Amino acid sequence: MCPVRGKFKQGKRKQRSPIAVGDDVSFTLIQAGDQPEGQISEIGERRTELYRSHPRFPRQRQVLAANIDLLVIVIGAERIDEQLLTVDRLLISAYSQGLTPMIVVNKLDLRPLAEVQADMAAYSHCEVFYTSAETGVLGDLPGRFRGKTSVFAGQSGVGKSSLMNALQPGLGLRVGVVDREGEGKHTTTHASLLPMAGGYVIDTPGVRDFGFWNLELHEISLYYPDWKAAREQCKFATCTHRHEPHCGVKAAVESHELDQGRYQRYLTILRETWNQQESVGY
């Protein structure tokens, strides 16, 4: 057990907690014996952070994990359309926070591979894996985690815990039950760092819902790498691709060079972000 020294909690902070799962820390031993106790004395500089706007304190950010390499976005093959808005939100979070995203379409035992791949055609710019934790079909996915620290994210009921258990036999994560409507219950109640497939995984609650922190509306589209060429045709550098004239992104959508569904989800994300910022007085 290592409590955090008070010096880390002093002064005005932009986040609620000074420490997160995945942090590299130094500690001093203050009690030896059968139940040793230390005290965290230093927190190392972070390579990366996974954070969101704090759900109760919107002006502060909540760091969910530190020093991670991969954001693994898991979706279920049987209800892809309903999950793509979550996918797009998580991709923005990954790119804006310096993480490498990858998409894993799980539950491949429920639908033909060709149909699933067609549904994912708009994400050819991403690394996409097709798996079934139920039948043990993992393809090349296990080798992707060696030497990396990962976080799994996605809606409840898509099989995140089952997938991690399949990648690391003996991990023993709790697996939730999916109801008739296809909704699952969260099975993770606290964050922990666990060995997995030659690397580590941070099993953490709270990565289903991301409120962007400190992100301007015109910056959101910068984290759509597949839109880069179209963005360069926009007349205005701060184009939000909604109502501005001479917009390269809108022109590319109209000519079917960019996916219409992905663009409509972008507009939804833009509107929700604007509403959130207005509600907290940004």
Describe the structure.
This protein is α/β, with parallel strands linked by helices and 282 residues long. It folds into 2 domains: 140 residues, P-loop containing nucleotide triphosphate hydrolases (Rossmann fold, 3-Layer(aba) Sandwich); 64 residues, Probable gtpase engc, domain 3 (Ribonucleotide Reductase Protein R1, domain 1, Orthogonal Bundle). It is 21% helix and 20% strand. The chain has 6 helices and 10 strands, in the order βββββαβαββαββααα. The strands form 3 sheets. Strands 7-6-5-8-10-9 form a 6-stranded mixed β-sheet, sandwiched between helices. A two-stranded antiparallel ribbon has the order 1-2. The chain has a two-stranded antiparallel sheet with strand order 3-4. Helix 1 crosses helix 6. The longest helix is centred in the C-terminal third of the chain and has 21 residues. It is globular, with a radius of gyration of 21 Å.
Strand residues, percent: 15-25%
CATH class of the largest domain: Alpha Beta
Q: What is the strand arrangement across the widest sheet? A: 7-6-5-8-10-9
* Count of helical regions: 6
Classified in CATH, the superfamily of the largest domain is: P-loop containing nucleotide triphosphate hydrolases
Structural class: alpha/beta
Radius of gyration, taken over Cα atoms and rounded to an integer in Å: 21 Å
Any idea of the CATH topology of the largest domain?
Rossmann fold
H/E series, N to C?
EEEEEHEHEEHEEHHH
